[in-house]
Amino acid sequence: MKTKPWLAAAMAAALSASLLSGCSGADNGGNAASPAPGISASPAAPQKLRILSANVGGKTPEENEKFEAALSELTGMDVTLEKPAEGYDQKVLTALGSGEKYDLIEGSNLGVLDTFVEQGVVSDLTEFVESSAVLSDPKVIPAAEWEQLTDKDGRIVAVFSKFQGGTMPIVRKDWLDKLKLSEPQTLEDYYEVLKAFKEQDPDGNGKDDTYGLSTSGLYDIQGFMSAAGLKYRYVMEDGKRTIPYATDAAVPMYEWFAKLFKEGILDPNFVTNDTAKMRNLFLTDRVGMVTYWDAWVGMFNSLRQQQDPSTAFAAAALPPASGPDGERIMRRGDPDYWFVPANAEHPEAAKQFLEFWQTEPGIMLGSLGIEGEDYIKEGDSLKLTDIGKEHNMDHGVPFWYNENVKPPFGKLPGVQEAQDLVKAHASLELALPGWSDAEKIVQQYALEAMSGKRPTRSSGCARSCSPRS
Amino acid sequence: MTTMKRFGALYAMMIPVVLYFLVYAYYPLARGLQISFQDYRLMGTHPYTGWDNYRLVLQDASFLDAFVNTLLIGGGTLALGFAAPLAIALSLNEVLRSWFRKTAQMVLYLPHLLSWVVIGGMWIFLLSPDTGLVNVVLVKLGMSGPIHFLADAGWSRWMLILLVTWKDMGYNCILFLAGIVSISPSLYEAARMDGASRWQQMRDVTLPQLSGTMKVIFLLNTLGILRIFDPVFILRNPATASKVDVLMMYTFQRGILEMKIGPAAAASFLVVLLTFALTFAVRRLIRFDEV
């Protein structure tokens, strides 16, 4: 009996530490500056390629096997494509920490990419990209875009896996038309529209059951903060990092949200909403405006049209509220990218794949999916199968850079207009070390102020949330 | 040697269990300890840095905040998670109709079978300020307006304590009931012959006889309070994070999200050490050796 608690305590200790067990592999000795040379396959055997992917691949394990086979056939390589159903970040971390060898890994967070560069995980792809006829073609990938994937030493460390869009206010255009309202341009316009959505029964069911606006926490109120000229995360001013959302200039904006909250215009669950709940509210006529990705403008329209072909539902992207000098600020998402780990066994195969992925066969596979499964060819034209329609032409590449490859079915309704807004106004957010700690403070103060729980003018948020450096 | 021969088969049967713990518990533990003294990069060399990781963690205000949150939430869960199932077990023991007792036990035990993902989603819905049942009832009862229990920093710790207690109440309740059932009926018979009332029987027979079970449950619950993670991960949101982020959340953030493996390993080991210290103190306090 005496030893049992100690045994239990030791187990507790073991369980606690086992969080890190995935990092317990032996040193793998990789080096970013001098990647391991590729091990050439025998001339007869196809080149091997092992990929770890978050988004690229089949929608189900069964389809992923077919996707893997299609990749092998199209590239002429023996491709293994691993796409974990969940816990992707942990999978990447444990794979790298335990010395597992992949030739390509997909990522979508520039902060993580910076950490990988710092920890010697990624290979330098500068020479490869600059000498590649495909990747160096500005019609395939615009030259200015490479800056996103260039490290602080000027090395290109990854290659885009798709074109990444941005987030913006998305409105029920049919409600706007029904209430005879025009598209809002300023913060005052936005208030009038949102108030009308709340009070004028836009869904016509005779009940007071609609909200003007729903968000998922602070994600993503950039379209409104634009009215005060404020950009999320860090902004460098005179060589020093600042957090605009934590300055006095943000106070009137939080007061604006608090007013929406107090008047019942803002969904009261906005703090606890996840993005799925927010989307559902929009799709079920409970809210007239949400803030989300450009691609979802089309998805919203497509989903409602699939449910009811005669629906009046129409989602449309809105420009951010114009700022004091007329400027509009919009958030562009971190790009999705491929990187070649420094311990890759087949870096040459990985490079072949990176070129293939930006060409028409690669783009068709990443968007439409597998021929015969997601689409069929009828003469010169393509036709989506029922499975293909379900998969919404997205197998990791809903949109791409390559101007030479046109979408065979066009874009979903509203997407082109949304992407035009992204191109006109969106910019990346600046992720710097320490942001996760600062973000916690900024979000807490901001959400409390927006919920009317903290008097913004006397909260001291601007002081408490101020950057540490 | 004779013993080895005699019990050889039994020792052989233990090998898989021992191997399991060596491979999945003690090896990661040892590697984690090693990593906590290294500048651990995902690739390349891992130079030893002495106590730097521990120093970094102990000087990190977020770690200290997480420690305070852990003590408050863990302490609350420990106290309420012990008292509530005990009270219910004692009450159920007084219920004479066995169908009611069994039904109540089953209903109480059900939440323990569900994952925190399900429980979290359910309570986020139930506590919603506009359509949640809890607020609808409270407003009907005359409250001025709904409370956003899960987004209000003032409520956040209490909600965690209450929900963790609610979820695990059935399990602890069954342990207590098992302890009560094993009390010799002759003790109750003797008490009744001495004229003891139901209350006196509970106070002077049941509770003293249950002390062994109570000590075991209290100690087991103590072992878990510093490792609380799932409910926090599911129920936290940016508005309440500063009030509910606990030590394991800190480790998760540093290790998995920021990939600062060395500091995360150091934080993990501090949790291990604190768990040892807490367990030792509680053993002494409750005189566990006298069970």
3D structure, described in words:
- The complex is a heterodimer of chains A (469) and B (291).
- With 469 residues, chain A is an alpha/beta fold.
- In chain A, strands 5, 6, 9, 10, 11 and 15 form a six-stranded mixed β-sheet that branches.
- Chain A is globular.
- By secondary structure, chain B is mainly α.
- Chain B contains 14 helices and no strands.
- The mean pLDDT of chain B is 93.
- The interface between A and B is large, with 57 and 65 residues.
- Distance from N terminus to C terminus of chain A (CA atoms, Å) equals 54 Å
| Strand residue content of chain B | under 5%
Give the structural class of chain B. mainly alpha
Query: What is the tally of helical segments of chain A?
Result: 17
Our Rg estimate of chain A from Cα atoms comes to: 25 Å
Q: Approximately how much helix is present in the residues of chain A?
A: 25-40%
Q: Could you say which structural class the secondary elements and strand pairing of chain A correspond to?
A: alpha/beta
The major sheet of chain A is characterized as: 6 strands, mixed
SSE layout:
The complex is a heterodimer of chains A (469) and B (291).
Chain A: H1 4-17, E1 48-52, H2 61-75, E2 78-82, H3 88-97, E3 104-107, H4 110-118, H5 126-131, E4 159-160, E5 166-172, H6 173-178, H7 187-199, E6 211-214, H8 222-225, E7 235-237, E8 240-242, H9 251-262, H10 275-283, E9 287-293, H11 294-307, E10 315-317, E11 330-332, E12 337-339, H12 347-357, H13 360-367, E13 375-378, E14 381-384, H14 386-390, H15 415-425, E15 426-428, H16 435-450, H17 461-464
Helix pairs in contact in A: 9-16, 11-15
Chain B: H1 2-35, H2 52-58, H3 61-94, H4 98-113, H5 116-126, H6 133-140, H7 153-181, H8 185-193, H9 198-209, H10 211-225, H11 230-235, H12 241-244, H13 247-257, H14 261-285
